[in-house]
Amino acid sequence: MRIAFTKCHGSGNDFALIDARAGGVADAHWAGIARALADRAGPVGSDGLLLLTAGDAACAFGMRMFNADGSEAETCLNGLRCVARAGFAALGGAAAAVRLKTSVAQVAIADPLAPGVATIRETVGPADLDAGAWPLAGAAQIIEAPVPQLPSARRFTAVAMPNPHLVSFVDAVDDAELRALGGICEGAPDWLPNRANVSFVEVRGGDLFVRTFERGVGLTNACGSAMAAATFAAGLTKRVGFDLPLTVYNAGGLVRAEASAEGMVTLCGNATFEWAGSAEVDVARGLAGDLVIDRWYNDEIAAWAGVIDKLT
């Protein structure tokens, strides 16, 4: 089947975004479409698939997100900003409630992070500290404590946003160590059957740097829900203050963030469109081909490159 989509990113976390409000694609096909469009060896390549879905009585529109392995995530905050932008473009308005898989988020058009950078504010929560509900075997709460099943003495804080995150504050991020610990959780062991995202976080003055091994994807440039979880965990452990704005940096860029003691987290970041086109998708094999690009968003690409240049 031929699938039309927009290639986009939030803080370097990139996606294929499809307007799925009209239906027409069998629900069972989305996992195969995600594997095809997120295959880094294929013509598109991305961290996952985003769907703009129809709204309901409470929400103007909805979002679904599928990881590169075809699994569906509870949320994706970098992706939510891109979906919100598409929703506003399709329906009008500048603020809305959005239906996610297991929760509702609030989104709004925000002042740009930099000239020419489309920017969306999103508020999610409350963060949930009940790790036993993930389930993580033997745990009710984990706050600044080792995870007994991991071969590491590092202390973690377990936070759901509502997808599960293990957050550890470190002096310096070690990608090899993060990949090893993330890989253990990715294997869906008996003690963590639904897997979890694993993040190492550096405190840089009053700001944070977050590096994440994302469930269903692997090591990523950025993970929005991990940045939210890290912001809340930093406040919870008194590394930063609650209700104070800070910047969260990552390998793909940055977001502005703020968390409350009640667990509500607001992120403000880019929703950049790079190009729009279509591809033939073999759903059964999870492969894409015959890519056609109809439009480039060169001004947006250049505007975001300017942001990155200032960080390097």
Question: Which key phrases capture this entry?
Answer:
single chain; 312 residues; alpha+beta; 18-stranded mixed β-sheet; 5 helices; 18 strands; globular
What does this structure look like?
This protein has 312 residues and is of the alpha+beta class. The chain is 20% helix and 38% strand. The chain contains 5 helices and 18 strands. It has an 18-stranded mixed beta sheet that branches. A hairpin with a 3-residue loop joins strand 9 (157-160) and strand 10.
Individual helix count: 5
Low-confidence stretches: none
- Please summarize the sheet with the most strands: 18 strands, mixed
What percentage of the residues does DSSP assign to strands (E)?
35-45%
Mean pLDDT: 97
The percent of residues in helical segments reads: 10-25%
Run of helices and strands: EEHEEEHEEEEEHEEEHEEEEEH
Task: Report a brief summary of the structure.
The chain has five helices and 18 strands. It is of the alpha+beta class and 312 residues long.
Q: How do the helices and strands line up, and which of them pair or pack?
A:
Blueprint: E1 2-10, E2 13-19, H1 30-38, E3 48-54, E4 61-67, E5 72-73, H2 77-91, E6 95-99, E7 104-109, E8 119-124, E9 157-160, E10 164-169, H3 175-186, E11 197-204, E12 207-214, E13 218-220, H4 224-236, E14 246-250, E15 253-259, E16 265-270, E17 272-282, E18 287-296, H5 298-311
Parallel strand pairs: 2-3, 4-6, 10-11, 12-14
Antiparallel strand pairs: 1-2, 1-17, 3-4, 4-5, 6-7, 7-8, 8-16, 9-10, 11-12, 12-13, 14-15, 15-16, 17-18
